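Ticket 4471: requesting a sanity check on a complex prediction with arginine. Repro inputs:
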Amino acid sequence: MPGADTPHKMWGGRFRQPPDSDLLEFTSSFATDRRLLRWDVVASIAHVQMLGATGIIPASDAAAIADGLRGILADAEAGRVRVKGPYEDVHSFLEAILYRRIGPVAGRLHTARSRNDQVATTLRLYVKEAILHLVAHTVDLMDATVDRAAGAVEIILPGFTHLQHAQPVRLAHHLLGYVWMLDRDVDRLMDCYRRGNVLPLGSGAVAGVSFPVDRQRVADALGFARISENSIDATGDRDFAVELVAAAALLMVHLSRWSDELVLWASEEFGFITLADAVTTGSSLMPQKKNPDPVELIRGRAGRAIGAVTALLTALKGLPSGYQRDLQEDKDIVFGAVDLVTASVRALQKFLTGVEFSKAHMEQATRRGLLTATEVADYLAGKGMPFREAHEVAGRVVQEALARGIQLWELPMEAYARITPLFGRDILEAVQPIAAVEAKRAPGGTARAAVEGQLHSARLQLDTLRMWVRETEGRLQKVSALAER
Ligand code: ARG
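Returned structure tokens:
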């Protein structure tokens, strides 16, 4: 048996010289994929139990291997085994430690398996867990936002287009806009989960395996919905990783857009929000400063999430089918993106707890900028004037108000009447911001009833998503428990 410092090798029979240590270090992925240890143990246990159950290896050997694997994981997680050293990857580390602990019987673990179908399986298990966590945290953020929205139905602020005052909206409506954005992100992640929920193990290196394996049994034990149909495709496929990274990048872009707005709103010029001390940072020079650093960093880190998509697609684009070592690069990219985006979702949720909305600033802003000029056109269209003409006439009302430097509700009735006799006294009411808001009664609009309907739909949707999280969590926990002693 090799000593503690001589790594047990997964290959070597045909070699006369050991690998160059610099190149071994260069090609090793152990520093990155060591975090896959638990899922690699889980997948190995499911595999070896199947080998034992089908009689491909003796049942007692299968039991000894499964036991040994569980012991290694327990020791690694308790810090009794160093998950470090001159190994090619987590798979060779695991086999080497197993060999050291239970002897040559460890060599039976790799029957009917290649690292190519092994790593594809382990990474898929990780991806399922990563999606679960990312979805769970995003649902929490949605939930918190719906709560803030429910408390903000009474607050009116300008809706912006081109960052110019456009039309007044309820703050609740504005906030719910982000909830539906995140809902699509979650849907994409769940979709990616579903499509990636396929077992590659049993594909071998490229051609399949020669033993009478029971792949469905392994799929069931590992919680995969089905087994892959083609061994060449299954070992070379990283679409599931691309999909996760792409969905995460879009989620990050959404967080970044929202963050940008929060930075803007916290500025002296907007003053739409004030920030609690706990979510801000001071300046080393300017004593008065209170900076929204967390959201600036979300915005700043979005570039890395987007870069991950390019990095992964570029790693794949030149590869012939089947496994190529280039595929090893997937893990650094996927882990980096998942960590970054998950942490950003959580940070934004934390940040929002320190955001106080300034009703006064928001409502003051709705009383500037002739925000309700569209109501003038709608009013005339309601009186039978074709909208295009009504728009033109409303433009004259705008000119009149601009010339006098007053708001639309301050323009005297005579001035309205001079422009067209279609105006009645009720125009002065119709151009008030709150009246403009309440006029947007069509579903999806910003009137109170429509916003309350939206809050209701959002809460129903959150119930559905939370159920998915609970069920998926339960399923993954059961699979993960294969590794418990
Ligand atoms: N560490 C490799 C990876 O992450 C898995 C091993 C397959 N290596 C090989 N030479 N066939 O992709």
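Notes from triage: The two ends are 26 Å apart (CA to CA). Leaving this open until the requester confirms.
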